[in-house]
Amino acid sequence: MSAALGEAPDVIANVRLSGAERTDPFADDLVDVHLAGGVVADIGPARALPRRGHVVDGGGGRIIPGLWDHHVHVVQWALAAQRESLAAASSAAHAAKIMAAAPVLPDGRRVGTGFRDALWPDAPTLEQLDAATGEVPTYLINADVHSVWLNSAAFRREGFAPDDAGILREEPAFEISRRLNAVAAEVADPLVAAMARDAAARGVVGLVDLDMAWNEDAWARRTAAGFDALRVEFGIYPEFLERALADGLRTGDVARGAASDLARVGPLKVITDGSLGTRTAACSHAYPGDPNNRGVLTVDLPSLVELLTRATGAGIASAVHAIGDIANSYALDAFATTGAWGTIEHAQLVAHADIPRFARLGVGASVQPEHAIDDRDLTDAIWADQTAQPYPLRSLADTGANLLFGSDAPVSPLDPWAAMAAAVFRTRDGREPWQEHQRIDAATALGASTHGGSASPARIEPGAPADLAVCAHDPLRASESQLRGMSVAMTLVGGRLTHLA
User: Fold this and answer.
1) CA 293 → CA 88, 162, 164, 285, distances in Å?
2) For the sheet containing 138-142, what is the strand order?
3) Kind plus residue range of the DSSP H or E element containing 267
4) Which residues pair with 390 in a beta bridge?
5) How many whole angstroms separate alpha carbon 215 and alpha carbon 221?
6) Closest-CA residue to 129 (of 145, 153, 109, 105)
7) How many CB atoms within 10 Å of residue 302?
8) Which one, of 309, 301, 307, lies nearest residue 338 by Cα?
9) Which of 41, 173, 218, 274 is deepest in the core (most CB within 10 A)?
10) Is 345 in a helix, a strand, or coil?
11) 225-240 burial, b for 16+ CB within 10 Å, e for fewer?
12) What would the pLDDT profile of 168-190 be if each residue is shown by its tens digit?
């Protein structure tokens, strides 16, 4: 029987099960998955049970639990569709040339995104960017979002004083991003809807939105306007914590004013250090050629303890950004001191002694495996003197930590298949695997790409939510190229079709 988006089939017929920690008896046999009331009602061999109601044929594809991206900056990722890509920029001069030809947006700005300057042969300068871009306010956002290169016209527009480089880092850079992302709802919401459709086409059923804004009102507005493509858990930043506490928000609650239960309160998000690409991640050893630079701690330990204590007491989980090994140590200390629950976001460089603490403390490792592949050359160059383990996926998994995969879009594209491929194969573009000893198995990677993470992977079984996807290949057996090119025939959220190829 034919189907259409938004419909709720009663049976997904002729599919093969796949997933982490399976306990069913069906192996690779064709099965029918029967749905009712937004959950899996039953599973049986194909045609063993009556196919009543609306039947959709899965064509022999693999049915898997729906995928999650545990770290997305939703509006910034959606707006990337309007911004000039700088991913191919090989030098500062090249990036400036790209921006000189970039279109001017309706607000009078040129905005580029995704440059990686740490290994450029030349350094960005204000003079260079001014010469290329003239009087049109021009903004180049680093791939890691922790720095922004602006021309003089942009500095004047934003009211910041430039230095010779024209670079803003950390909080001033975040402020620029907040301003650039503060577009009208009639501009942002259609782009968010398009982003969600693209995510659903990749088998995604949910994401954690960590936009640097007050997110509850936006998601209430979107659901009221009919947004129904994904489940969303939205973060709360420290500047909004008082408001969240006063309003009685608790992690897991449905967003007030929302038209459905798809939008829910997520964690307090605290950024405690910088990034690898901007050379501001807080590390135990100095960066090469810069003996006084060990990165920056943007939130000290007492302040972090206070924030986590207040959030925990109010029933709000915590998501702590920590990239360098010092930042990860402090974050773990804060979880241990406060009894907070939640995640450390990124965990890109972790001291060997700290790796087992994630599992002991019950702190999830919310990690982005594609970053390891994006940053492999950068890591080898500027973290060469660090003694901690970079991107320690296997080490974390082996000690029992709960891995939760994401993209940090726009830092990497929102694509859970790319994340799984990076985690399982530790390579891309035909290169030799990087840090091969940190590869994980495909079942762990698939579990980490579901809502509960690798320690509590989603399963397809009676009573489970009908958050499902049907894909072309078995993720547990797929090659790197098959994972990266995975096609998805259909995606369902609560038993309702959100994508149909």
Assistant:
1) 28, 21, 19, 8
2) 84-85, 110-115, 138-142, 147-150, 167-169
3) strand 263-271
4) 349
5) 10
6) 153
7) 10
8) 309
9) 274
10) strand
11) eebbbbbbbbbbbbeb
12) 999 999 999 999 999 999 999 99
Q: Which amino acid is at 100?
A: A
- Beta strand 31-36 with 39-45 is antiparallel
Closest CA to 206 of 103, 4, 71, 308: 71
* Spatial separation of the C-alpha atoms in residues 225 and 189, rounded to whole Å: 9
Beta-bridge mates of residue 242: none
What the block records as the tokens of 208 is 């954690």
Residue whose token pair is 């089939």: 9
| H-helix or E-strand spanning residue 118 | none
Confidence of residue 2 (pLDDT cuts 50, 70, 90): confident
Q: Which of 64, 98, 69 is nearest to 84 (CA)?
A: 98
Residue whose tokens read 């030809």:
101
Among all chains, which residue has been given the structure tokens 């911004």?
83
Check: CB of residue 437 under 8 Å from CB of residue 424. no
Pull the structure tokens for residue 245: 């506490």
C-alpha 334/C-alpha 357 separation (Å) is: 12
Q: Which residues of 336-362 are buried (b: 16+ CB within 10 A; e: fewer)?
A: eebebbbbbbbbbbbbeebbebbbebe
Phi-psi region of 71 (alpha: psi -120 to 50; beta: other; left: phi over 0): beta
Q: Which tokens hold the place of 284?
A: 């135990």
The whole-angstrom separation of Cα 17 and Cα 366 is 26
Q: What's the burial of 27, exposed, middle or buried (CB within 10 Å: 0-12/13-18/19+)?
A: exposed
Write down the mean pLDDT value for the chain.
97
pLDDT category of residue 46 using cuts at 50, 70 and 90: very high
Nearest to residue 60, comparing CAs of 28, 21, 19? 28
Helices (H), 86-206: 92-100, 126-133, 152-158, 171-181, 185-200
Show Cβ contacts of residue 412 under 8 Å, excluding neighbours closer than 6 positions: 368, 370, 371, 374, 418, 419
Kind and range of the H or E element at 352?
A: none
Between the CA of residue 425 and those of 183, 431, 443, what are the distances in Å? 39, 11, 13
| Confidence band for 1, pLDDT divided at 50, 70 and 90 | low
436-471: buried (b, 16+ CB within 10 Å) or exposed (e) per residue?
eebbbebbbbbbbbbbbbbbebbbbbeeebbbbbbb
| Residue 396 contacts residue 347 (beta carbons within 8 Å) | yes
- CB of 239 within 8 A of CB of 268? no
